[in-house]
Design a protein that fits this description.
Length: about 450
């Protein structure tokens, strides 16, 4: 089908541009996935997904006109193209002047990893989590692999193909003391095959299952968190949830241009501590937000967004870059061929600093130590945020003491960045699925151990 699309692309693109426009594009996607869910000590559901189709996009007067279909016949694609163009005629386009093709290299392809072996991963995780403590009353686990082939042909003469493979695995455990329940969660995965589960130092199945159970049991016996303003040390183990939510979205150019970002108009200004450098990098090997080309055919890039506290730039897709006379930064991503590409993060992180993580804790007389974030909410217009703390501890006289529960971090993204006064040399990653405008995108985020000198903790007043 891809070869036929390449052959017919000039006619389809010409039809799209028949009534004028700045840009036309054909986006082809073939996605295949397998998802296994475990609940109540058994495999509850096995899902096989196959979805393929084409999206046709016309940018006219810097506005997007879009249509999609799973009927890939030439006649149907031409009909959609002419409908989008609102007119018939001859448009001139360039096709085939630039061609690029790449793929995510994996050692163990999902197609070569049997369903029984996938099942065994979940059953093993269930056994490990339940064996951790008799307080574990519920375990759920999910294993998902995705193989995605895309091809983009556009009116700039570019033809790009990319094959992407991802495997993700996560476990949730619930602990009970008959009066209370507490949830623990852990995950792993990325742009990688089933070599993800190769045993190097620690088997990922054991680690993820044990961590989920450990957090559940720990939270069950934790003390209520104190409320008030105090220093907060966020462990590298927490991943970069805060930087992704409280800062990253505000650096997406579409939100900036719509006046929905607190960072609008601040290029070249100091927006964070001089200890802070923020990077978005889709080129990192095996990370969940990595790829060779984005969903507009732009090569993956490493973008320094904030350098030593100074705002250097925003993330762009093609449309926003066209409007502002910029170049796309390779951040145009879409959930599927059924959606238009929008500006999205990839792998976003605060770069490692020079401080010893242990010294950061030892130098904190009193405060909260965050090991794992939970859910949260962010207002990108003013930067205000609230994040749940899934696993946290008190710091007293430079030492980690007792675990706490019911804590939340309440603050403001720009202020939190300005108040960072220590950045460790460690760097810890986490995976996730980012939601925006009704679309999802696989991402990773990270940060080193860092200290925010003062932040409001929502908890129990003492």
């Amino acid at each position: 089908m891809k070869d036929i699309l390449k052959e017919k692309a000039p006619y389809i693109l010409s039809a799209l541009l028949a009534d004028g426009g700045e840009f036309a594009e054909i986006f082809y996607e073939d996605l295949r996935s397998t998802t296994l869910n475990l609940e109540d000590n058994k495999i509850e559901k096995v899902s096989f997904g196959i979805d393929f189709g084409v999206g046709l996009r016309l940018i006219k007067n810097y506005k997007t006109i879009y249509g999609y279909t799973s009927d890939l016949s030439f006649d149907n694609l031409m009909k959609i193209a002419k409908t989008l163009a609102k007119a018939e005629g001859e448009g001139k386009v360039l096709v085939g002047q630039k061609y690029a093709k790449n793929k995510v290299e994996v050692l163990i392809d999902p197609d070569d990893f049997s369903l029984s072996r996938k099942r065994d991963i979940l059953l093993r995780a269930n056994d490990i989590a339940r064996a951790y403590s008799d307080k574990i009353v519920q375990v759920s686990a999910t294993l998902r692999d995705v193989k995605r082939d895309i091809m983009i042909i556009n009116s700039l003469g570019e033809t790009v193909e990319d094959s992407q493979t991802r495997v993700v695995f996560f476990v949730e455990a619930v602990a009970s003391d008959k009066n209370n329940l507490y949830r623990g969660y852990e995950s792993t995965g990325g742009s990688i095959g089933y070599e993800l589960f190769n045993e190097d130092f620690v088997n990922p199945i054991d680690y993820v299952a044990t961590k989920a159970a450990e957090r559940a049991v720990l939270g069950l016996g934790a003390k209520p968190a104190p409320a008030g303003s105090m220093p907060v040390v966020i462990s590298s183990e927490a991943g970069g949830t805060m930087i992704h939510e409280a800062v990253g979205h505000g650096l997406e150019a579409d939100l900036v241009s719509q006046g929905l970002s607190v960072y609008a108009g601040k290029i070249g200004q100091k927006v964070a501590s001089e200890l802070v450098t923020v990077i978005d990098d889709a080129t990192l090997k095996n990370k969940n937000g990595s790829f060779n080309f984005d969903d507009e055919g732009v090569p993956a890039q490493r973008k320094v967004l904030i350098e030593n506290g100074i705002l250097k730039g925003y993330m762009y897709d093609r449309l926003r870059a066209m409007k502002e006379g910029k170049q796309s930064t390779g951040n145009g991503r879409r959930d599927s061929y059924k959606q238009i590409p929008i500006v999205r993060m990839t792998n976003t992180y605060i770069d490692a600093g020079k401080d010893n993580p242990h010294d950061i804790i030892a130098d904190t007389k009193y405060g909260v130590y965050v090991v794992k974030m939970g859910g949260g909410q962010v207002n990108t217009v003013n930067g205000d945020f609230v994040f749940e703390v899934m696993e946290g501890y008190m710091i007293e006289n430079g030492k980690i003491t007792y675990p706490i529960k019911g804590a939340s971090l309440i603050g403001n993204g720009p202020k939190a960045l300005q108040d960072i006064d220590a950045v460790g040399y460690d760097l810890g990653w986490a995976i996730g699925t980012c939601g925006k405008s009704g679309q999802r995108a696989p991402v990773s985020d990270a940060q080193p151990t860092l200290r925010i000198k003062s932040m409001t903790i929502g908890g129990t007043a003492i």
